[in-house]
Amino acid sequence: LELAVNRAAEQAVPQAKVLLTNAVKSMSVDDAKQILRGGDDSVTQFFKAKTAPQLSERFLPIVRSVTDRNGLAQQYNSIAGQGSALGLIKAEQASIERYVTQKALDGLYTMIAEEEKKIRANPVAAGSEIIRRVFGALNR
Questions:
Q1: Which domain holds residue 50?
Q2: Residue 113: inside a domain
Q3: What's the structural domain count of the chain?
Q4: I need a labelling partner for 65 at 20 to 30 A (CA). Which of 6, 74, 96, 109 fits?
């Protein structure tokens, strides 16, 4: 089960690149101000707000494809559906596809947050002059 879940997540994560890039390209001045004034994870929260629904839509078919190949979805959904009907698990957890999709998104945003933390801690190590200036200004 865990291996199938991880494989589905691995196949889905590359879909994020385009949407994350588009989020940066569409960033407004107000968005930038909120990021600068925000907390230690304000960039991550920006990405989450701008991309989560679209990423979920793109991840779900990939996850569904992998879980269907393994026969995993049918088995899990049958058992989880019964558990949900009995109130043992939440309804949104009764679909393995949606559960794995959400976990993949959680993992993606965790990775972004970790990178953001590194950049904020050491902006000079960041690859871009703009990033160095922005995060360097925050450390003054």
A1: 2-72+102-138
A2: yes
A3: 1
A4: 109
